[in-house]
Amino acid sequence: MIRGARPLRVLVVAPSRYPLRQPHAGGLEACVWDRVRWLRARGHEVTLCAAEGSDFLGDAPEFRLPVPEWTRPEDSSDTEYPEGYAAAVDSAYDAALDRLVADRHLYDVVDNHSLNPAPIRWSRAAGIPVVTTLHTPPLEPMLEAASEVRDSPHRFVAVSQATARAWSVEGVDAFVFPNGIDTDQWTRGDGGSSWVWSGRVVPEKAPHLAIEAARSAGAHIVLAGRIGDVDYFEQEIVPRLGAHARYVGPLRQPDLCRLVGSSAVALVTPMWEEPFGLVIAEALATGTPVAAFDIGGVSEVLAGMPGAATVMPGDVVALGEAAAQLAAEGAREPLTRVWTRRAAVRQHSLAQRYREVERVLAHTAQPVAARRVPAVSW
């Protein structure tokens, strides 16, 4: 905690689509899960507003958000919602706002990670400071909400320079505050012969291109992650599985750490403007080198990292060659894994960023909480 400051009373708002629990639905859910756990460990009083079934939820029903209920599992999607779900979420956010207004005195600041515009407007509707973290490229509903809170106690932060630039073009300015990972949980592994890909199995993450890259280099690859698009999985992934490619499903963090840490190289294959790429930091923390498509914020996460290479998006042959070279270098010099992890800890550890997290939240909370929380020295 910041020296001289009292604990903050924080309402953390998570995305509504998936519960915060392991195995994590994606990097965003993993980030928010770590944020709640870490803020509480730092002594702050944290209330969570998140999807039903999440860890850390309290007793307030108004802070429990509905989860999509699909009639057929094969219809589930990371981009679509079942009929009626959007209205249910809107009602849930209305109830959360009513609770927030009634108990306004219980909170200093809202730490917002939702992709819904409603929590942005809480800074105006409830007069409570809100810090919104931009985890995606610009979304039109959030842009509209941002235009309505220019004179409210609100601050935007972005997970990368690339993300901040994209939002700035649309008129939303944000401080850059990169994601972090718990490097006490993401520990160094001994490496191995197989390659690895992890993340959401969706077209924009393009794991099928990771399989093609491994095949072009004659390597075996293991894929891990939740299926976010069933049609894509059946059409693009299943036909490519076999002797050289295996899918192991979603894994809890300890199991995923062991898999990534026992791999020769990790492939990262976004085919969209990747805001950050948490799987990059996770792999590097295990000592496993990363070969990635250079798009969005990927190069920022890899900047200054040993054991890293980028190629043009979509170039599977170049990706395979880069990955093979990293794997060979790691086999020749085992200490490369030690150096890679040390660099990842310095650059991506949550422990290196706790002061900045607390300062952003405390500074934003100051206009209404200064009577209780002493000024923060920057």
TrEMBL record:
Residues 26-185 form the Glycosyltransferase subfamily 4-like N-terminal domain. Residues 198-326 form the Glycosyl transferase family domain. GO terms for molecular function: glycosyltransferase activity. Pfam families: Glyco_transf_4, Glycos_transf_1. Keywords: Glycosyltransferase, Transferase. The keyword Glycosyltransferase applies. It comes from the Bacteria. Gene3D superfamilies: Glycogen Phosphorylase B. This is Glycosyltransferase involved in cell wall bisynthesis.
